[in-house]
Structure formats: C-alpha cells, structure tokens
Write a structure and sequence with these properties.
65 residues, mainly beta, two-stranded antiparallel sheet, two-stranded antiparallel ribbon, elongated
Length: 65
C-alpha cells in the first residue's frame, strides 16, 4: 500500500541503420527510471502535501501545510 511513482532517467537514444547513425541524443524519459514508493503510513498526516513535476511525473516536493 502507498503511492508509487517513476523517477525519470536520462537515456541515450540513437537511430541507426546499416552502419549510419541518423539521430543520437541524450534525453529524459519518465518511464525509463526507477520506481519510487511512498508508504501509506505517511498519508495519515492530513496536512501532508506532495507536489509532482508536471512534465515528468516525478516528485518535486513533500511538505506540510
């Protein structure tokens, strides 16, 4: 029980075909990162707030009101 979320990872991406590289880049991909977990017990504190990054879905901050 608890809240599961992804921690984004920087990934090297390339498009290769027959010894030629058409594209190569380093980018952040949310689904390639580790799985994080916040246990259910911490949510017993009703003043607890969790802020998520709108672009990647990772946790930006955990704070109390």
């Amino acid at each position: 029980m608890g809240l599961y979320y992804r921690i984004p990872a920087d990934v090297s991406v390339s498009v290769d075909f027959e010894d030629f590289t058409y594209y190569r880049s380093l980018m952040t991909i949310p689904q390639c990162g580790y799985l994080g977990h916040l246990p259910a017990e911490i949510f017993k504190n009703k003043k607890l707030r969790v802020a998520f990054d709108e672009k990647y879905g990772s946790i930006k901050a955990i704070y109390t009101k």
